[in-house]
Amino acid sequence: MEIIHHHNLAMKTEEEKLPPLIQAIAAREIAGFDNANNLHLHDLKISILDANEEQKQVSISMPSSPIEVHVGSSTLYPMSDSAAKFHSQPIPNNNKLKYQRFDSFKTWSGKLERQISNLRGKPCEIHENDDIENLPLDRFFDALEGPELDTLRASEEIILPENEKWPFLLRFPISTFGICLGVSSQAIMWKALATSDSTKFLHVTPEINLALWLVAAALVAAVSAVYSLKVIFYFEAVRREYFHPVRVNFFFAPLVAVVFLAIGAPPPVAGKLHSAAWYALMAPILCLEVKIYGQWMSGGQRRLSKVANPSNHLAVVGNFAGAVLGAAMGLKEGPVFFFAVGLAHYVVLFVTLYQRLPTNETLPKELHPVFFLFVAAPSTAAVAWTEIRDSFDHGSRIAYFIALFLYFSLAVRVNFFRGFRFSLAWWAYTFPMTGAAVATMKYADAVPGAGTRLLAVTLCGVATVAVAALLVATVVHACVLKDLFPNDMAIAISGKRPKMTRKWRHRYRRRSSSSSSTTDSDYCQGN
Amino acid sequence: MEIIHHHNLAMKTEEEKLPPLIQAIAAREIAGFDNANNLHLHDLKISILDANEEQKQVSISMPSSPIEVHVGSSTLYPMSDSAAKFHSQPIPNNNKLKYQRFDSFKTWSGKLERQISNLRGKPCEIHENDDIENLPLDRFFDALEGPELDTLRASEEIILPENEKWPFLLRFPISTFGICLGVSSQAIMWKALATSDSTKFLHVTPEINLALWLVAAALVAAVSAVYSLKVIFYFEAVRREYFHPVRVNFFFAPLVAVVFLAIGAPPPVAGKLHSAAWYALMAPILCLEVKIYGQWMSGGQRRLSKVANPSNHLAVVGNFAGAVLGAAMGLKEGPVFFFAVGLAHYVVLFVTLYQRLPTNETLPKELHPVFFLFVAAPSTAAVAWTEIRDSFDHGSRIAYFIALFLYFSLAVRVNFFRGFRFSLAWWAYTFPMTGAAVATMKYADAVPGAGTRLLAVTLCGVATVAVAALLVATVVHACVLKDLFPNDMAIAISGKRPKMTRKWRHRYRRRSSSSSSTTDSDYCQGN
Amino acid sequence: MEIIHHHNLAMKTEEEKLPPLIQAIAAREIAGFDNANNLHLHDLKISILDANEEQKQVSISMPSSPIEVHVGSSTLYPMSDSAAKFHSQPIPNNNKLKYQRFDSFKTWSGKLERQISNLRGKPCEIHENDDIENLPLDRFFDALEGPELDTLRASEEIILPENEKWPFLLRFPISTFGICLGVSSQAIMWKALATSDSTKFLHVTPEINLALWLVAAALVAAVSAVYSLKVIFYFEAVRREYFHPVRVNFFFAPLVAVVFLAIGAPPPVAGKLHSAAWYALMAPILCLEVKIYGQWMSGGQRRLSKVANPSNHLAVVGNFAGAVLGAAMGLKEGPVFFFAVGLAHYVVLFVTLYQRLPTNETLPKELHPVFFLFVAAPSTAAVAWTEIRDSFDHGSRIAYFIALFLYFSLAVRVNFFRGFRFSLAWWAYTFPMTGAAVATMKYADAVPGAGTRLLAVTLCGVATVAVAALLVATVVHACVLKDLFPNDMAIAISGKRPKMTRKWRHRYRRRSSSSSSTTDSDYCQGN
Known about the structure:
Low-confidence stretches of chain A: 1-18, 32-96, 122-132, 500-527
Oligomer: homotrimer
CATH architecture of the largest domain in chain A: Alpha/alpha barrel
Helix content of chain A: 55-70%
CATH superfamily of the largest domain in chain A: Voltage-dependent anion channel
Mean pLDDT of chain A: 74
CATH class of the largest domain in chain A: Mainly Alpha
Number of strands of chain A: 2
Order of helices and strands of chain A: HHHHHHHEEHHHHHHHHHHHHHHH
Number of helices of chain A: 22
Largest interface: A-B, 37 and 38 residues
Radius of gyration of chain A: 25 Å
CATH topology of the largest domain in chain A: Glycosyltransferase
Structural class of chain A: mainly alpha
Distance between the termini of chain A: 66 Å
């Protein structure tokens, strides 16, 4: 038990440096769900196959996590309390086996135990890992539904306990970074409201920008810290989010959020940004893009005609936002590079999404808030081109007017926000509104007049209301309904197909939904 | 019978205000086909199911139609005479039941009767209406064929009598507005010929423009008036045209024709146009676009990968033509807006049509005059960009040269006009030629020289010959063959699929036509 | 036997004018494989059906071929020696019947014999020709595999002897022109290296350009001459290459190679080019384009959604290269025309290839050198736009940066050149690298600096290394492995499908490879 003590000691010293929220989450992870056994181990692994034998308990020393973050506003994280409470709740003993199933997602549980078991001479078979390792793309489409592919189909089984609340980190999706996008883009908007010629008459104080920017920075830091813990403790869950055809696009969200922070930085901060920071920021975006776009082109399972969905716009927005930042910092070539890459892929994406190929299984049949992402790319492109050319020329106008048309085209479909389950991803759908508002201010600067000014103020108002509404919804879901972070089905699907009878029934259903292939299956089944 | 009298009275006073042609058509509609019964009712409704019972006769008072139109040239409407003749022809009695089937398309027949029947306590089942109300998109593709989807497949049945001539309004399709497009674009061309620098040497008198413009204006007025009557009397038929995947695009035709009229207006008239007129004109185009493009994007049945066909270019041309008009009137922002919207959707459409996705069932296998619509958008875009930028710059050149390449690429496929049944829609395929001719004059203005002048004159000549040829064809079909307005199968398809054996045969045929899916059906049938 | 003598006589006088290599090949063709019979006839035709009868021998006088070419470097054609050797090798007698099967590909063998037979009153049935005449596109996809569609599937049979080496001309594919593209683009690069401001510091001597240009010109002449012989002697084989969905694009290669030669011509030569030469050069490119793009649009079997593959870029590059040449020669309108046509089709192609529609059967699942063709079009477009605008403006930058992104995106996938069978088509994949290097030099001229200069030099180095590596590979395959020109399966597929059992097995395999349609066939087979 020396290892355990060493581990506890190491954690103690680490914990003091972490802010309370992060501490609480980390502590809970370390505690695991084994309170009932009075064992403070986080990677207890019980081979399910020989559960009748004596249970083998193995612990490893956790690496000291070098994360130092400052959480500015802990009120945004109402889970911290409940998480802390949960910590001390005793878990009923009969659920023990079920909870052990989370181990398959834990970072160091599998391999190490096997190594130790092998050392002891008893190789233990781990069956869940078969499920986990080979998860082809088609399984995601088969097992999940909804525009964010996060709802389990009726016929499917998952490999985590369906009826229990999972550990917090497993329920913490990458799409939480959408909040950062929403708030940091608001910081940009209020900066523009305070400095733009067309909105000078509103006398907006720059303090709003400062306040929002601080909140946004704190949020980015907090969400990043928590997600880092997920990377550390549940790498398998992160891996599954990365392979998820919709979720993978949200991996751009933290990077884009930081770019937004840099664009929206209050003038004193913004002045100090060195151009090296820009290169440092854009490098990971470029790498991720090379990866994602390469997958489209290389045409394995992840070919574009299969995975295209509005969240792909996030990568494109990353390009244009990077171009805005770079051009605003006075760079010349880099911004044009990202603008060009963004433009090329935007054209491909725009055409593909508009076509709605029958193979684009992720595109929801009905319009959905996710479609607002359509507005993000052209409005950011308009701002980027304006910064590059230093004037709102015809190129900017074309991009801006496309954004405006798409915006109104979506806005008139009013039965939009009805009948959809709220999710954190919705935050990502507010930043396009903010982006359109910012672009409109640029436009109103170029074309002064009551009409353009009215349009700018209206769009700013709509964006602010949308963000406020989402804030309320988030707080309600967090504090009242306590379901802000439901079990994340998207990462828990089984690699095996459900049994034959179910599969057939399910398949038939799925086919029927895409009208073009219905006839085929009808036809064949008719035989 | 008080209601009937009131109705006849109301019509009498209205009729005096209408020009003779419209009067004749309206009178015939009101008379219906019930002359044999000596009853002047237009919405006699006989429930076919209990035809053995006493027939229930219901009449409603028609709203006084507030249409006041001026038909400039009644010679273009040779149907007026025959329609008037028809009016006094007695209809054989044994056809009575058949003609009553038209009632299901009449505007006020169905609902009101049911209400009155219900008041009387006898609910009457109306079976045809089941056919009419739920008509999914797939039925159009299944039941019709041809590039304009207006030919009934052999296996299908229709809900209107196949062997009789239908009422005139039911045979009057929205694509008749194609004539307006053809003639009004000619007015534009002759205006350009008279005013353009490059064609000054031809000494074209502006009177030709004036004459063509008057004819075009009269045509627009006449066709609009007649189609308004269709809207009033046979709303169900209009509804079905609106849901028809090809026809719906022709709903842009009247709007675009008016824009063309405004562009081609003789200088004294054009000078008086107020910019408010432009906004008034473009508003309905914008609304219709939001509707149509929204359908593409929202991806129900009417997803682009399914409905894309060359007639979609009409909407795009509407944008560019609006931009031309606006820029010519001195507006700055509005024209760029429409240019941007047009450009975005043109790119999507161009790529989609060029790809010829296997799901694009409406695209004819062989080239067809409809493909000339490909030329319309880039040549109008070239003119629009020239007006916006006030010079024929590289942007204009790129659009113009694309149009030129497409034009020649289509023109060299000479076996074009063979083997296709003439239809009124062909008129819509002449205006792209005229558009290319106008763009060439703009180009010749920018690049003076014998070559460009020759090209401009040649293209003007080709366009004039094409319009003249169509005029002859139209007159021949109208006066000699008397089949200018054949029964419009496109609106009469049944909502129910034909019987099983037929369906299978038919399906097999349809599949074979799209080579990519042949193997599937082969495969399955092999079992 | 008078005809034969006359023929031999005619050839004698012709042969003296031809360079040795061409002579050797022509001589071998004339000799045919009938040395064993001691008959110097090239179109001996033995009707296989009545092989037991007396053999009919027919000869025709060959038209005097007006080809006069100068082979600058015969070392590049190691086949000449072996071909010459082969000439004198006796062919075993028992193979005679097999070799006679090549006759079905010979130009004058079939028809003439039939005519003569008919004159003699003995109609002879020729069964192979049924195979040859009707070869639908689907047969190519069904029977072949690989990114260049040149590998026979296991289940297929071919109509030429599989185990023997075929006549040289039958093994000489149109893709050999890829070598010309590779070498002539190197000539352009070294010209730019010698003349460009950004690479002045390297002090590259213009003699390298001159040497490479001479080699390239000689190569173009030699390959053209040999391929002309193929056209003359084996027209059926050329026809089949033309109908091959990938090969057809290589018919642009000789035209593009000549354009490259004109661009890369040493300054004294380049100065003498008359603008008429440009029109003469571009006319056939335009015609071929009208043909190919027309096939896409007309949507028969050769619809784009079916035949799209990276080699389609060759046509687009032809447009941009023509624009570069024309603009460099001082023309104004022509270059913009080709730029516009290229741009329009590039957008269509880029989107289509990126989407990887499930119907694009030719696209290899894994990345392959052929994907480097993606880089060619945007980098040539960047140079073309720079020449047209006379400055490296934002338009050029956008095209150039897209090329750069695609280049790096492909380059980081390092397991590229592994596991692929070398083929001559690879030469075509080096010219995009050279094109990117040339565009980078233009960029470095516009944006002077150590970084851009380094990039330019690096890309030039990479391109040179790639060409050198291919040269070594080509020499090794030619001299050591003696398999530079393997039997060309692509032209020898049978028009008939293999027997039922095989077909089913094969089909099942093919389906499985495209994931989207797997389920269908699974489903049906499950019954």
